[in-house]
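Exercise 7.
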Amino acid sequence: MVDKGGKEPLETISLLIEGAGSGRDADLLKAKIWSLEGVKELNLDMESRQADVTFDPSRTSEKEIIRSISETGMTCSMAKVKERSTWWKEKQQLALYGCGIITFFSFILMFLGVGSHITNALFGIAVLVGVYYPARKAIIALINLTPTIHLLMLIGASGAILLGMWYEAAILIFVYSLGDVLESYAVDKARGAIRSLTELVPKKALVRKDGHEVIMPTEDIDVGDMVIVRPGERIPVDGKVFQGMSFVDQAAVTGESIPVQKNVGDEVFAGTINQNGSMEVRVDRTASETMLSKIICSVEEAQSKRTSYQRFSDDFARWYTPAMFALGVAVATISPLFFGADWHTFILRGLVVFVVSCSCGLALSVPVAVVAAMANAAQNGTVYKGGAYLEVVDEVKAIAFDKTGTLTIGRPEVSDILVYSDITEEELMDLVGSIESRSSHPLAAAIVRKAKEINAFSGKEVKDFQEISGMGVSASADGKQYLVGNARLQQDKGVLLNEYRESIGELESKGKTVVLVGSEGHLLGLIAITDTVRPGAKDALQRLKDMGIVTVMLTGDNERSAKMIAQQVGADRYYSQLLPLEKVELIKELRAEFGTVAMVGDGINDAPAMAVSDVGIAMGAAGTDIAIETGDIVLMSDDLSKLDYLIRLSTKAITIIRQNIWISLINISFMVVAALLGYLGLVTGLLLNEASAVFVIFNALRLLKWSKTTDASVAVSSDREPSVSGGAAN
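Solution. The predicted structure, written as tokens, is:
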């Protein structure tokens, strides 16, 4: 990376933040890092506790950045993933436990009638033990003129001590620190659901090298190595079966509940379970590049695309702390100064305002819900490329589907060969197979396979090959120019079709795609190709329609074939004979009609249409790297029922997010008003405050265990409109 303003190369480091009090420390961290000369870019994700810092190494250094972070009371490491420490090694938790034990012991002594000078001294020790870490952060925040919730808490505790309320101060410190730890636990719980996917891959594997079997670390395995996987073991790598046959449980990657049979040449994925047979697998990807690693990275990086609710909570937190600080000061001083009110009473009320403000339930509950939902999706073979798409999917009113490979299996087969010239069927298939071998289209692959099956493929020399988007190809062979494609292509190039239209129409009426072969204005023959409707497609579309979502099929295929497939799957509408750019225009029209539209495709050929939709969904992406890059949401398997699951999950997540926002806002409003009126004490206010924060956070964590079968109430969202019946495009 290069600095925009000069020639100096920039460096980027990724730091894992330790000791961060959830979302409470974001402003402090930003202030400290940005204060360093030479810092050019900062991406701080408090949910993952990760900071990506881009800097000019000639003006600052990694060591200086780490030192600056340590001054906030937090620490950091260069490790991307760090093993969780046991509780007795966490200094902040030890301080919490020490504060709690001393406070509890002091209460017992007070109950037994021990003198106040002894109990107050013990309460004071409890405060000193528990306050170190939050006070350190609060003081640094004050120095950097970035007031945080830590500062509000420190003012509240200090004021309580000045008023002689020693046990209240001790309880404040303990309960506040406990809330901080619980909130951190909740965040780690949500993140851990994603990180746990890494534990599915074995640390070591049995590898055949130079005729010997050796056990070696998975990260040391190279592409091309041969890995032996015994029954019951997890597959440690991505690769292809070189020897053996077995059934493999792929739920970790694709979300498929039924094991899949794997034969020689079939692809297998790291983290999946070999059930009953022994296999040798040739490695295709290193440990850091496996499909499971890509899923984890995609979810981890998805935090940059935030929902409107996340942006709201961030904006709220930005003005909330200064506003509460100002309100607390005003409550404590205005009435005594201008109206002669009792100083003790109103200082105490001001302290209560500070205390009830010491919560980040709203700031945390929303991102925790988003992370939990995306973790749930990842564990079920689907990947959100950003939390924003949870919100978009919840608002989807229409879904457009590509036909080939999406609604159909995507492995077309040649069913009919008709010859209209003096060449033989084998000669026609040799000619067309040689031409189509230069194309990557699924129909071309079907023709090549058929030519080879009937031993008619010789691999003729092909020149001047050209793909004509949405229509077919042209090429020269044996000194002649040929056209291979649909009727539209042949007509545009002057090939006469009138006497063959009956035959063409009869094949198309059976749902077959007809590939015409023309040369020098004459039709040489045709090849009919059929594709099978994907199992479960009809049921999947019916469930979507039951939810009020309009289903639309888009295809470049002919009218008759498109109509038959649309009828078989139960699509509300279909549009046929579409060029790629025409699909784009149709998506725009659907957006204008329905508002929010999703596009489901293979993630490659349908990329333009997916790009202009509100959310592009790539399906069957397991084993296809580019599909993971293309879709906003990725279905790792070819299971269309995942669409129903995605919509219900999104609806559930948005419902919980709205609940948390309203609960947090109502609770804050209630406690502030009660504090102003003198109905809340320090301890009561703090307990209610932290209880509310913990409640909304753990409410968000429910999404980790949610499934569509456990919450039937979200099957039909109240704001969804009934399905619209459609028909063929004219």
